[in-house]
Design brief:
This protein has seven helices and four strands; from the N terminus they run αααββαβαβαα. By secondary structure, it is α+β, with helices and mostly antiparallel strands. The chain has a four-stranded antiparallel sheet with strand order 1-2-4-3. A hairpin with a 2-residue loop joins strand 1 (about 80-85) and strand 2. The longest helix has 22 residues, at about 100-120. The radius of gyration is 17 Å and the shape is globular.
Length: about 200
């Protein structure tokens, strides 16, 4: 892709291109927590159909389940899961870049965006019960604690945040069951076209 080429809004760009962008930013920005500012210029609609499906979800649980199910539409290198643990609903992200500085920055970027989307749908102040990151303890931890709204644990086995069950299951003011089902059908078709399969095209309302 030439520097002067502007891709279509729905174009799928190679992971190597985004990695190069992150690495360039890392070399130019001295603040290791710079990726946490991504949410300042982000909206769920930037994810296309998946973003609109997110906005129409009935709860944060179903929104996060959608994101985990259809994340392969966004890229093949990273992955995420959404599941239950003793403390609550866990959303985990694997950057697919290993336990490396690049992987740490990508995890910061994605988790801050996902939590920002949760806050946008929830319509009220929202802080996770816990946030655990693979990155080593930074020189300044305060930006992380301030953004996530809890004391972040560093040097963890995986990158994830935990939501209380009552928060995860609270009905959302943005919910629209009819639209959610329509977007699910479109996303299932997109996933199938990528060769990932749709496992029966389940709906999350």
């Amino acid at each position: 892709l030439a520097a002067t080429d502007i891709p279509h809004a729905n174009a799928r760009l190679p992971s190597e291109l985004s990695d190069a962008g992150f690495e360039k930013a890392m070399s130019l920005i001295p603040d290791p927590a710079f990726a946490l500012r991504a949410a300042e210029c982000w909206h769920p609609s930037h994810l296309g159909v998946l973003g609109y499906a997110w906005l129409s979800s009935g709860s944060l649980r179903t929104a996060l389940m959608r994101l985990a199910r259809y994340s392969r539409i966004l890229g093949q290198k990273a992955s995420c899961t959404c599941g239950e643990a003793a403390e609550g609903l866990v959303f985990a992200f694997d950057a697919g870049r290993g336990d490396t500085p690049l992987g740490h920055v990508v995890a910061d970027f994605v988790l801050c965006l996902v939590l920002s989307m949760c806050r946008k749908n929830y319509g009220a102040p929202l802080a996770p019960l816990a946030v655990r990151l693979r990155r080593p303890m930074p020189g300044k931890r305060q930006p992380y604690d301030d953004y996530f709204g809890c004391k972040v644990e560093f040097g963890a086995a995986e990158d994830h945040f935990v939501l209380a069950r009552d928060v995860a299951d609270r009905p959302l003011p943005t919910a629209n069951q009819e639209l959610a089902r329509t977007f699910d059908a479109i996303l299932a078709a997109q996933l199938a076209a990528l060769g990932q399969g749709d496992e029966g095209g389940a709906h999350f309302v």
